[in-house]
TrEMBL record, chains A, B:
This is LacI family transcriptional regulator. Gene3D superfamilies: 3.40.50.2300, lambda repressor-like DNA-binding domains (1.10.260.40). It comes from Micromonospora arida. One of its GO terms (molecular function) is transcription cis-regulatory region binding. Keywords: DNA-binding, Transcription, Transcription regulation.
Length: 335, 335
């Protein structure tokens, strides 16, 4: 026997309209009501004819979040927040990993998957404004400042200011030979360029010179890269009294390399990161960092997408800014 | 002007058949050829009529991976491997987060999303065999040993044996008061039950008694839970000389709590975890652990799904076992 909407409503003790709202992914259903309806759907093995309905409405109830790498904890934590914020709109989130490859990002941005998804939140590493010009694909929100003169909605944080503030904190500790770890070529990543700019701003504001030998590159930003970069600095005879790493995983690798070299943190070398991932709160020493408001980044991105899906697609692109704060822990503690 | 398959083939310098293979997600296309075709698709803004085609074939080219929590690094690392293995079949992976909630897992398993996906890989925390009985939904592969007498294909590792071996390693170091951190109620998680069983087996094999006061519960397995569990043990006057944590994040929290209590690892207390996440390789001290072959778990799961999608759906469910190995690092180093 094939059950109907009416049967589900009866079983769940709600109106047919409410069941319809749940099945259609509407927002204004109380979580306990939603749970009851979902229970009834499972118990009766009710199957709405979704494919047909979605083709009619032109909506799938699914959005995609595309990030370079899920095993960079920042993106995994961000993904959790996006899933939560999307759930409030009744959306399922498809998570995709681009590997930061430009071709992958272009295929996504060009809407090749738009038969599956209603909208896309993309954290690009390699995409350029030219790639986005003239696209009429899936509604899209970009994360980060990778692209100047961005033609799409996006959510950013002020990377230059944040990097400047955490560098100034190291200067205020009395450190003078502050290394920067994570520099990249322009085509590798915008975050690196912006954070390096903030670092230079802070040095300049304090009257400290910019010393290229204190800047270490890292084309990927994993722990191993941070460890290798610090080993490289030490091997070449550079003796920093502080290290600003462009993300926390680099910084956790740096902590390890400093430990192996017999240097104490923060006594010999203070260390700061960027992202405030959970690992840094439990490392020994605990890690000072810039904490972008990841929940807010996710909420703003979802809001932009909802506005775009619900409103006029020709409205000019908007840029929203999420806040950040500095978090001081043991790795920069004063003696 | 609307471009056709032929135009893409011309632009990419390949045959129409090859373009069709790329668009249809076939496996046997060389990566550089695939990239060239994707470039041409983007340049020409070619749009295959995918919805119609998929309805005809009854396939979407998308599979789902549902895990309890993406910000548990084990699941993020596993997700990366699943995305890679799926790409070899031309599949896109939709990643979903269940929060380990039984209702969420049931809705997924019941096939409510089967208009979107061809198959599901599910790592269940709360689902029971009863929930799966009589399901005729989306083809599904389960990860882990949560469900006894499982009616679906699944990939497991031998949790009892692995936990026993890492506990025996602690015993061989001469440790006698070995705490276990991460115990859970039966309805919370099967991994906890199996790893506790392995721990007890090893104690018994060594002629050591089982001491309930050395076992600490943790209903979640994050760093904070591991730190809280160890603080709890120490506060209640329990003085372990080793700690076996049921995953690495618990162990990283335990390392932190021991450090804060002024205890040295491994001199005063040896610590071992489970999962071999990247964090443990860079922690200070580096973390000894059980390393399940996550790449193999992913490959086997994808293979089971491919077999199920390509073959007879009534073939009895299969269980495949992925290997693991022990990794000894500083946290259990002998003096």
């Amino acid at each position: 026997m094939r059950h109907r909407l009416k049967d589900v409503a009866e079983r769940a003790g709600v109106s047919v309209k409410t069941v319809s709202n749940v099945v259609n992914g509407h927002v204004h259903v109380r979580p306990d009501t939603r749970a009851r309806v979902e229970e009834a759907i499972v118990e009766l093995n009710y199957r709405p004819n979704l494919s047909a309905r979605h083709l009619r409405k032109g909506r799938t109830g699914v959005i995609a979040l595309a990030v370079p790498e899920l095993d960079i904890p920042y993106f995994a934590e961000l993904a959790r927040h996006v899933v939560s914020a999307a759930a409030e709109h009744g959306w399922t989130v498809l998570i995709d990993q681009t590997g930061g490859r430009r071709d992958q990002e272009r295929v996504l941005a060009s809407g090749i998957t738009d038969h599956l998804i209603d909208g896309l939140i993309l954290s690009p590493l390699a995409l350029t404004a030219a790639d986005l010009a003239g696209l009429d694909g899936t509604p899209m929100v970009l994360l980060g400042e990778r692209i100047e003169h961005c033609p799409a909605d996006r959510v950013v944080i002020d990377n230059v200011a944040a990097a400047g503030e955490i560098t100034s904190h190291l200067i205020q500790l009395g450190r003078r030979r502050i290394a920067a770890v994570g520099a990249q070529r322009t085509d590798e990543g915008a975050s690196a360029r912006l954070r390096l700019a903030g670092y230079r701003d802070a040095l300049r504001a304090a009257g400290l010179g910019y010393d290229q030998t204190l800047v270490a590159s890292a084309s990927a930003w994993h722990r191993a890269d941070g460890a290798a970069a610090v080993r490289g600095l030490l091997t070449s005879g550079v003796r920093p009294d502080a290290v600003f790493c462009f993300n926390d995983t680099l910084a956790l690798g740096a902590l390890r390399a400093l430990h192996e070299a017999g240097l104490r943190v923060p006594e010999d070398v203070a260390v700061a990161g960027f992202d405030d991932i959970e690992d840094g709160r439990f490392a020994t020493p605990t890690l000072s960092t810039v904490a972008p408001d990841k929940e807010q980044v996710a909420r703003l991105a979802i809001q932009l997408l909802a506005d775009r899906l619900g409103g006029d697609p020709t409205v000019p692109a908007r840029e929203l800014r999420a806040p950040y704060r500095l978090v001081f822990r043991e790795s920069t503690r004063t003696r």
